[in-house]
Amino acid sequence: MADTKEPTPENMTMMQAFEWYVPDDHKHWKRLADNVAQLKAIGVDNIWLPPGCKASSPSGNGYDVYDLYDLGEFDQKGGKGTKWGTKEELLTLNENAKQCGMGLYWDAVLNHKAAADRKEKCQAQEVDQEDRNKTISDPYEIDAWLGFDFPGRAGKYSKQKYHWYHFSGTDYNADNNKTAIYKILGDKTKGWADGDEVDSEKGNYDYLMFADLDYDHQEVKDDVINWGRWISKELTLKGIRFDAVKHFSEEFLRDFIVAMDEEYGKGWFFVGEFWKDSLDDMTRYLDRMGKKFSLFDAPLVYNFSQLSKTENGDLRNVFSDTLVKTMPVNAVTLVMNHDTQPYQALEAPVEGFFKPLAYALILLRFDGYPCLFYGDLYGIKGEHPFPPACGGALPDIALARKLYAYGVQQDYFDYATCIGWVRYGTWDRRFGCAVVLSNAGPGTKRMHVGEMHAGEVWTDVLGWEQGEVVIGDDGCGEFRCSGTSVSIWVNKDAEGRERFGKFSSDSDIYKS
Question: Which residues span the membrane (predicted)?
Answer without folding.
Answer: none
